[in-house]
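Progress report, Aim 2. The chain analyzed during this reporting quarter is listed below.
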Amino acid sequence: MDSVEIGSRVTLKDVATQAIISVELAMAADFNSGVPKISMKSPLGSTLLGRHVGDELTVQTPSGEIQFRILSVEGLGASQSVSQQKEAYHE
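Predicted structure tokens for the chain:
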């Protein structure tokens, strides 16, 4: 199973609210396009690096901790099977 790396598009579910978001992990110099991107140096970006589909992670924000589950990873070297993605959505 491949891990989250620079250039990966990651779909996350907020465990508390069930909200689903998709972001692309980028270096600061890559923020020119309109795709929602997060810096690898941000709290969420640094926590995502090296993680896999199904992993749960806790991110410290100014308003408190947020817990996410990784639903899918796509992009540079990240190829999750459809069954792995479906399984993560239903957990």
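The CA atoms of residues 39 and 64 lie 19 Å apart. Strands lie at 9-14, 20-26, 37-39, 56-61, 64-75, 78-79. These observations will guide the mutagenesis work planned for the next reporting period.
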